[in-house]
TrEMBL record:
One of its GO terms (biological process) is long-chain fatty-acyl-CoA metabolic process. Pfam families: NAD_binding_4, Sterile. Its EC number is 1.2.1.84. The lineage of its organism: Eukaryota, Metazoa, Ecdysozoa, Arthropoda, Chelicerata. GO terms for molecular function: alcohol-forming long-chain fatty acyl-CoA reductase activity; alcohol-forming very long-chain fatty acyl-CoA reductase activity. This is Fatty acyl-CoA reductase. It comes from Caerostris darwini. Belongs to the fatty acyl-CoA reductase family. GO terms for cellular component: peroxisome. Residues 3-162 form the Thioester reductase (TE) domain. It catalyses: a long-chain fatty acyl-CoA + 2 NADPH + 2 H(+) = a long-chain primary fatty alcohol + 2 NADP(+) + CoA.
Length: 390
């Protein structure tokens, strides 16, 4: 399926373009992660281990089961068939484009709009958008992520403006060779996944959503083991407990199926949040110098000017407005609701501590003795404080 869409689809488009006698420019939108088996990704087309035509010929006679067995060996070093076939498509484009005026744009992780059509505009739950929604609802509590790694987010309007500008440059300047443009933010305007967490969580609490399941307090962790423990205690056990209560009261269970979908989505993203790449953007910076000042305003793709705290706030508000269909006027009510959830959460925590105290410290003599020793030491310490300060 990926071969048919990304590789053969590209071939069919190139064949069509060869029939166009007045074609000005053909801009192929790839992905920055098509070469994710490399740590340093320059603005060049890398040759894949197996030529595209051999892959096409192989896929055509194999059944699905055999393709499934062969796929892990073919995509070695890449997380999925999408990134692999995107790399094949780039090579095929080089091989079959001939004299066509072609360029390649490679966006990284495409996120909500920076400015156009509206700040924060977004129309899908893909990538970080889904994570923000899950966090704002209190569903996502933990995720395995390398906090120090670059979060290479790129607003969708920046990508579109760059594609338009690349089309103009390709049509008017006719470069001698196919140019690749890495449409990324990491090398130009640095932001880490840890930075995303530090900025986004307070903003989510400032602009809460309706229908929150748990108090939003998710976090990234570098430890896979700790993440698995957090998933067990913060995702799975509460989901099964609440769904069991729902079934017993005659309601439909919701959380367990929801968490299954969430964990599948996180599994797809985890590769990109635990690895880091250095994308060069020399051609993008070169193009920025070629554009007239008035065109820079109309087709802005200068990611250096983006202020991440402001952008992420617009992003979160955009998710509320455009995806969740929650008007800004509903924010005061949502904040009151979040305060109630916060109080309920603290009450549950106190109850759990009290229950633990009753079950452990009051049931076992040794635990009770340790508790009283601890309390007496604390009291003695407080009594000694005036003498120490004097």
């Amino acid at each position: 399926r990926s071969v048919d869409m990304n590789v053969l689809g590209t071939r069919r488009l190139v064949e069509l373009c060869h029939k166009m006698t007045h074609l000005e420019a053909l801009i192929h939108v790839s992905t920055a992660y098509c070469n994710c088996d490399r740590e340093q990704v320059d603005e060049v087309v890398y040759n894949p281990p197996v030529p595209p035509q051999k892959i096409i010929d192989t896929i055509q006679w194999m059944d699905e089961d055999l393709v499934g067995v062969l796929t892990p060996h073919l995509i070695k070093g890449r997380p999925n068939t999408y990134t692999y076939t995107k790399a094949l498509a780039e090579t095929l484009l080089v091989e079959e484009s001939g004299a066509l005026p072609v360029a390649i744009v490679r966006p990284s992780i495409v996120t909500a709009a920076w400015k156009e059509p509206f700040p924060g505009w977004v129309d899908n739950f893909n990538g970080p958008t889904g994570l923000i929604v899950a966090t704002s609802k209190g569903i996502l509590r933990s995720m395995h992520c390398k906090s120090s790694s670059i979060a290479d987010l790129i607003p969708v309007d920046v990508v579109i403006n760059l594609v338009i500008t690349v089309a103009w440059y390709t049509a008017t300047h006719r470069p001698n060779s196919l140019l690749v443009y890495n449409c990324c933010s990491g090398s130009i305007n640095h932001l880490t996944w840890g930075g995303v967490e530090r900025l986004a969580i307070p903003l989510i609490l400032r602009h809460p959503s309706h229908g929150v399941f748990f108090y939003p307090n998710g976090s990234f962790t570098d430890s896979r083991l700790w993440n698995q423990l957090c998933v067990l205690f913060y995702h799975r056990l509460p989901a099964y407990a609440l769904d069991l209560a729902a079934v017993l009261t005659g309601h439909r269970p919701q959380l367990v199926p929801l968490y299954r979908k969430l964990h599948r989505a996180i599994q797809c993203l985890e590769y990109f949040t635990t690895h880091e790449w250095a994308f060069s953007s020399n051609n993008v910076l070169m193009l920025l110098e070629k554009v007239a000042p008035e065109d820079k305003q109309l087709f802005n793709f200068d990611i250096k000017a983006l202020h991440w705290p402001t952008y992420l706030e617009d992003y979160i508000l955009g998710i509320r407005q455009f995806l969740l269909k929650e008007e800004l006027s509903s924010l005061p009510m949502a904040r009151k609701s979040l305060k109630r959830i916060y109080m309920y959460t603290k009450a549950v925590h106190l109850f759990m501590v009290f229950l633990l105290w009753k079950l452990v410290f009051m049931r076992y003599d040794s635990a009770r003795k340790l508790w009283f020793v601890f309390v007496s030491m604390v009291v003695k310490l407080f009594n000694a404080l005036p003498r120490i300060t004097s």
